[in-house]
Queue: 2 jobs
Job 1
Amino acid sequence: MRPRDDPPGAPGDDPGPRTGGGDLDLDGLRAADVIARGVRGAEPGEVPGRLCEVAVELLPVVGASVSLRSEGMPVQLSASSAHAAHLAQIQATLGDGPCQSAVQDGAPVLACDLTTGRDAGRWPVFAQQATEAGVRAVYAVPLGSDAVCVGTLDLYRDSPGGLTDRQLHVARLVAGVMTVALMALPREAEAERRDEEPWLSGLGADHGEVYQAVGMIMAQLGISADDALARLRADAFARGCTALDAARDVIAHRRRFDRY
């Protein structure tokens, strides 16, 4: 896949440096219009996926995914495509990559060239698997505040390159709207009172399969949850699949872990 050509007037038209706050304000207004159109009429649980699609429309990327921070593995919520979802699963399986670094740093991480140089050396295994999947650059933008990062918006590009100041401004704007949308979803108690779907209902369902498999591995081996997750990840890596695929094999009794 190639990044789509930016429409006239889109933030990606000007590859040059920032020329002033007025330019950023104008980019923000244009992006806000696209965001509003993208989420119009969407149910609350559909908004994260719609915003991933909006990010692809606004920025020179071929895919986007959103994940929440979690103990053990990030919770993948939505993606703009199956390809983007697979790339998010690669990071979750490895426990490494720009997404993990952005969560730790609480700041955007722009891996502009995964084929060579510093970025390829920083996450060597992820870089190899990402490039094999057709991705050459990844940008991870934190969700939340400077003090608390609750997850990341991950953007995937199939050619090396960075983001201009204006494009990063738009990416931050999409991430900010994503954070507000996620926090606005009703929690369990609120949903019961309002007779609504609970928070993240239908989202992050894959995460539950991973931890069901982790529970089964704990029972099979008599080990802790952290060790069971590590075994699942190692098995996935050894077989060249994602942790989710490995988990589904465990749940379906196609894969069993035995004590050494």
Job 2
Amino acid sequence: MSKILKSALLGTALTAATATAVMAEGVELEVTHWWTSGGEAAAVAKFANAWNATGNTWVDGAIAGSGGTARPIIISRIIGGDPMAATQLNHGRQAEELIEAGLLLDLTDVAEAGGWAEIVNPSSLLEACTLDGKIYCVPVNIHSAQWIWLSHAAYKSAGLDVPTDWNEFTASAGSLKEAGILPLAMGQQGWQQNIAFGAITLAVAGQEAWNGVNIDKNADVARGPEYTAAFEAVAAARDLAAESNVQDWNMATNLVITGQAGAQIMGDWAQGEFSVAEQVEGKDYSCLPGLGLNPVIDTGGDAFYFPVNDDPAITAAQKELAALLISPEVQVSFNLAKGSLPVRGDIDMSTANGCMQKGLKILANGGVLPSGDISFSQDTTLQIEDLQAQFWSSDMSAADAQAAYADIIANAD
């Protein structure tokens, strides 16, 4: 029996016969996720390889598209009685109703055996997996959305210095256009446009106003002058991305990698695409957390949940996998490939690239914010994403978009 399995089984009521069966034969577990871009596929392979090395088998259930595409499929299967053994979701409030319905496995015994409360940093990630004192997911990474990625090739072609913050970027946009370069790459999906909105808002409106809206859900702040400036800045960004005709986020990243676009606002998972393309931070591209103006990051990310089943051998294997995903070696290998930060605060990440080191420094200094998945319900998040999709794809005024947004915040849960 592996050390991981021994840890996972501490405190459980599995019989000796069941544990012996798990040891002897290994178990196939179907794992669903939406990591299908080049960088994401390279990262999830680290999980699969580690699981297969235990004598068990990872049956990959990749769902093409974004989380917005995958989540309804995942939830439908669980509710419909055809659950996978494990599934990616974002830790936060996406799984609340599944937990309340008794459809997800309680991992509290695994978490206590592994000392998750002592190693998960920040602690809010584990709290986001907890409901009524019980832990239902294992957080596997920290993803932050407040980054701008800049192409050195694009700026060299335009004869410009690479910007060091959002203001310098917007000032350079006209010269990029004159050189035939798209200033801002943007995928045509609401969640991507909402990431850009959030990053620009944090940089332009400032953290106090951002906290008032995203933490306190204060609609008056959302209607106030700080957010007026933010919506006007987003409207200007919309103009810079007007000729961006790609759909998926990784295609927008590729425009930056190939020098066809000057920049992209996207989460730190974009690093995986630069890595697969063998580009080097500081030489081929630059990354600016907080758009170079407000170096803070939110602490959202991914977690794995395990649907309840009535087979003790599957349950034992699910708990073994949960313990494996947060183990030190797997945390290092996965997050180096993914471009995300590890959830463990006790591992060596000295080999991480410059972008990850920036994130780690911000994390160590406490410059962290809750992600939207933690602050808002899924219903509220989808309303905001729908509004952003409408705003970015039309001539809706900044004032009208701000008014609609404030109404959403007034009724947010």
